Every structure is written in C-alpha cells, then in structure tokens.
Fold this sequence. Notes:
Elements: H1 6-20, H2 33-39, E1 48-50, H3 53-57, H4 65-77, H5 99-129, H6 133-159, H7 166-172, E2 175-177, H8 180-207, H9 220-240, H10 249-268, H11 272-277, H12 282-297, E3 303-305, H13 310-332, H14 335-356, E4 360-362
Helix pairs in contact: 1-5, 1-6, 1-7, 2-5, 4-9, 5-6, 6-9, 8-9, 8-10, 8-12, 10-12, 10-13, 13-14
Amino acid sequence: MNPPSQDTLDTARSVAKAAEAGYGRTADRVPNEATALALQDTLLTPRFYTTDFAAIDRLNVEPIREEWEKLMAEFEADNNDEHFQRPPDMRGDCSKLPEGLYQEFREFLISSCTSEFSGCVLYAEIKKRVKNPDMKRLFGYMARDESRHAGFINQWLKDFGIGVDLGFLTKAKKVTYFKPKYIYYATYLSEKIGYARYIAIYRQIEKHPELRFHPIFLWFEKWCNDEFRHGEAFALIMRANPDLLRGLNLYWIRFFQLAVFATMFVRDHSRPEMHKALGLNPADYDQRVFHITSEICKQVFPVTLRYDTPEFLKGLQALRVIQESVDRAKEAGGIGSLLRRGGLALQAAWVFGRLYLQPVHRQPLPEQARLAPSW
C-alpha cells in the first residue's frame, strides 16, 4: 500500500490540533508512554484507516431521503454541544488507584482516545475529498463529534500526566486501507457496540453509584447516544444501497460481526481488575453487550450471530487463552518466540474459522430502518 498522501497528513494534523483543544503544539519528539501505547498495531489495538473516496462520493441516499434528512437535522441540532465539558475544579487523577486497576483503566482510556481520534481523522479526510453534499454533511458532523470525544478523553489522561500526543500520532501511526463496504460494516458495528458497552456500564453505575471510581462515567449516557447516532448513519447508507446486504456480502457481514465480538471478548478479559471494580463479570458483561448489539443489528443485517450458545462461548474462551499465550511469547522474545507466535496464529485462525462456520440467525429487514437508543 502507498503511504498516506500529504493531504491526508495535513488533514489529520489539523484535526489533532482541534482535538487537543489548546494543549500546545506537537513537535517531532520521542512519544510519551501513552502515545507509544496508542502507536501499537496489533489485532486488539485501534488503527488508522484510509479508503476509496471516489466510491463514497458516488453514494446515493435518495431511497431513504426522508429518514436521512431527519438524521441530518439531529446532527445539526448537536444536542451534546455542551455535554463534553467538565467543571473547572473537577479532575480525574486515577494514579492513586490500586496498581492493577490503574494500569487497566489507563489502557482503556488510551485505547478509547485512539479509537475516537482514528474515526475523527478518517471522517475529516472523507469530508475533504468528496463533493457529494450528503456525504460532506454527514462526515463533517461525525468528524466534529469524534474530535470532541478524543479531546475529552485526553483531558482526563492529562490529569495524571499521560495525555496522548495526537499530533505525533498522525505522523507516526500506520495507515491501513479498507474498501468502503468494509468501512460501512466495521464502523457501523464499532459505533453500535460502543453504544452497547457505554450504556451497559452507565446502567451499572446508575444502580451502584458507589462503584464509580472515576468521574468520566458520568458522561457515558449522552456519550453513547452519539455513538448510536453515528451507527444510524451507516445503517441508512446500507439500506439505501441494498447490494451491500445480500449475496456474497452476507459473508463479510458475518465476518465483521465475529471479528468485533471476538476482539471485545479477548480485550475485556485482559482487564479483570477494571471489571471487578465496576462490579461486572467480563463474560456476563460481554453477553449483555452482544445481546444489545445483535438486537440493534437486526435493523440492517439479514444475518446475526448465535452469540449465546455454549459452542460460541467455548470458541471465544479458546481465543482468549491463545492471546494470553501470544502475550507471554512476546515477553520471552527471541527466535523461539517468533516460532511460537506463528503456531499460535495458526491455532487462532483455526478457532476463528470454526466460529465463523457456526449457524447464524436469519431475519427479514424491518420496514423502518431507524432505531432509538432505548436500552
């Protein structure tokens, strides 16, 4: 793949400047610890993406024009305009948390900031590259929201001295090419599962306020509604272009659902102290999130996963054990480590393949494409 263009880098840097919200210039320098974590490229870490902008420019939303305009009106109203502010005297220094909880929560915030910023950069670049007025409007609004989210998370990280250097990230982070349809499937799922994750945590804190070990959880309810709205945009794009939802594309839809669920399961089980502090069992929490996400996905996907079968859970557990072995092999280093990791990658591919071939639910698409965040 070719390296990102100068236009792409310029767009990313301007977005980084906005997201930093006045935290100072980012010069060429050695990244701090948080930025080094954000730079990692693994199966479990967020990535930066580019795509075929001309194909996005050709998208037509006329078949769902009425619903589209209602959604654009919601974006324009920007009900969360003042939500992502915090009182000047509120700080979220979590460096005094127990060591295990601190490390896991820090990684959670860094990963979340990187993911939001990744979306921000991609959406800003799409807006810049396309002429289609519908796409310009949509991706302009979405870049605005993701910039706000990334900057907000970074505020809390800066409270304990490990803010992500977003400007450095735009220069050094590897960029991955994704076909537009992969962007639609993967981003729809990431936005909807993001909603499900945030609302599940918020409902837990709502019932048990004594478990809220950091102030950022106070923002999760309205925050997840942004995620939900973003997913609605991709749902409408896919419903307006039904070829994306039939034929061989059904196999891609299954693949991305499984990839997103498996990644979440493995990642969540690497944060036992964080879930314990929230009073959540990772497996039970993931099943709740899978349920919410799968119910939402019925608005646009003709196939959804049977996520609650013993066979499915057994496969996810196997992937978790393999990932733990990979992490240990990385720590060991050396030639033996490389060989060991290669063998583990083959094992993971075998387990993933068996999960992929399990039966799925099939359902007709509802007449109404839009959903409300009612969970």
